[in-house]
Give the backbone structure.
Amino acid sequence: MEPFDDRQTIRQEIISLLSSEELTIRDLSQAVSLPEKEIVGHLDHIERSLQRQKKKLMITPYKCLTCGFTFDKRTRFTKPGRCPDCKNSHIQVAQFYVK
Ligand SMILES: [Zn+2]
């Protein structure tokens, strides 16, 4: 279990990265050296804390490259396996930034 302060530091770093450019979960995972599933947890928390700062986590959602289907909010952080519409697995990854 990480100390609270470390998690705060990582979240601040993620917010600062996303304030300067649009990044995917994989980009963030490499930038802060954490597994992608931990990034997802941080993003969830960051989204809520940004609301209190009158900022917003902007999401370019996962999108099917074959039929253009856009994935809804429920799957915004975790990469979907296949398109529910055309069953294709060519999915464009979601990107995030802070505004
Ligand atoms: Zn599709």
Notes: The chain has three helices and four strands. The chain has one domain: 4-98. Residues 4-20 form the longest helix (17 residues).
